[in-house]
Amino acid sequence: MAMASLSLVIGVIVVPLVPLKSRGLNELKSPSDLLDFGEFSDCIDFGSGAGSPLLHVFNPAFDYVPPKLVNLFIPDRGGHNPSYMYRLIAVYDSADDLVLQRKPAS
């Protein structure tokens, strides 16, 4: 009786959930939400074959603020400093939903 060999290959791919660059955290919306094409049609260079724009519009749906610049959170129950937010989360949310990460000691 001959035995058959079995080869098994397992692969794991690790992908970050959030981009490391702050610009990647912004969801971009259409510039037409801000500008009417008829009003700004003179900002397009029709002399070039492609009609390249002379005006570039960056319209983020949300603004990203780096954590080091946040000094105060103002929810519906008053203003709190960032260190107190852990306490508010513990009071209002279930302990199963709470994920705290401690920084390694230096």
From TrEMBL:
InterPro entries: eIF2B_beta_subunit, IF-2B-related, IF_2B-like_C, NagB/RpiA_transferase-like. SUPFAM superfamilies: NagB/RpiA/CoA transferase-like. Keywords: Cytoplasm, Initiation factor, Protein biosynthesis, Signal, Transferase. Its main location: cytoplasm. The keyword Amino-acid biosynthesis does not apply. GO terms for molecular function: guanyl-nucleotide exchange factor activity; transferase activity; translation initiation factor activity. The keyword Transferase applies. Residues 1-24 form the signal peptide. It holds the Pfam family IF-2B. It is found in: Cytoplasm, Cytosol. One of its GO terms (cellular component) is cytosol. Belongs to the eIF-2B alpha/beta/delta subunits family. Component of the translation initiation factor 2B (eIF2B) complex which is a heterodecamer of two sets of five different subunits: alpha, beta, gamma, delta and epsilon. Subunits alpha, beta and delta comprise a regulatory subcomplex and subunits epsilon and gamma comprise a catalytic subcomplex. Within the complex, the hexameric regulatory complex resides at the center, with the two heterodimeric catalytic subcomplexes bound on opposite sides. PANTHER family: TRANSLATION INITIATION FACTOR EIF-2B SUBUNIT BETA. This is Translation initiation factor eIF2B subunit beta.
